[in-house]
Specification:
It is built from 2 helices and 11 strands, in the order βββααββββββββ. It is mostly beta strands and 171 residues long. A 5-stranded antiparallel sheet has the order 5-2-1-6-7, with no helix packed on it. A two-stranded parallel sheet has the order 3-4. It has a two-stranded antiparallel sheet with strand order 8-9. A hairpin with a 1-residue loop joins strand 1 and strand 2. The termini are far apart. The model has no long low-confidence stretch (mean pLDDT 90).
């Protein structure tokens, strides 16, 4: 994929240079110190390390966006070090990894703790082929229902399969 004009924005900033390409089934990394990162990778992996980026990701949480050449936000994530986000990726060398590439990365349930040092330019170590559905963002209206009130329940269900129905059982 040609990355000309693509950029990372919000907490950190980086514009991919002309000629930047990610081959099919490959993974790229944007780093504050690309030379240091390249030194621990194979030469082929090192070709997929970009940077340096401006800014620094906060250990306590931040917002990152990927923008296409026209400035449209194509993907974004706002991560945190507070539950329900996985603990341990708070500046101690561990990284956050998306469990499955088809999951909505806005939800903490789509993420897990990766190995120390991460998996730069490689598939996520903890990636799963399929996972049980996860429920996120549950709320109901009214907030304090009376005995005669109709209650509406809102929830996001994350699934890597072909989930077609969700049932709510109330007692």
């Amino acid at each position: 994929m040609d990355l000309k004009g693509w950029r990372i924005d919000r907490a950190v900033e980086f514009a991919f240079p002309d000629g930047a390409v990610i081959p099919p089934a490959a993974f790229a990394v944007v780093s504050n110190d690309p030379e240091k990162l390249r030194a621990r990778l194979t030469p082929d992996e090192g070709k997929l390390v970009f940077g340096p980026m401006k800014g620094k990701l906060s250990n306590s949480g931040d917002n990152i966006a990927l923008l296409n050449p026209w400035g449209d936000v194509m993907d974004r994530v706002r991560y945190s070090d507070r539950p329900p986000w996985p603990s341990g990726a708070d500046g101690g060398g561990f990284s956050l990894e998306l469990l499955h590439p088809d999951l909505d990365n806005r939800w903490p349930q789509a993420w897990t703790l990766g190995p120390s040092g991460g998996t730069p330019c490689r598939k996520n170590a903890r990636e799963v082929k399929a996972m049980a559905p996860a429920v996120a963002g549950v709320r109901h209206e009214p907030a304090v229902p009376g005995p005669e009130d109709d209650v509406t329940i809102h929830a996001h269900v994350l699934d890597t399969g072909a989930l077609s129905e969700v049932a709510v059982i109330f007692r």
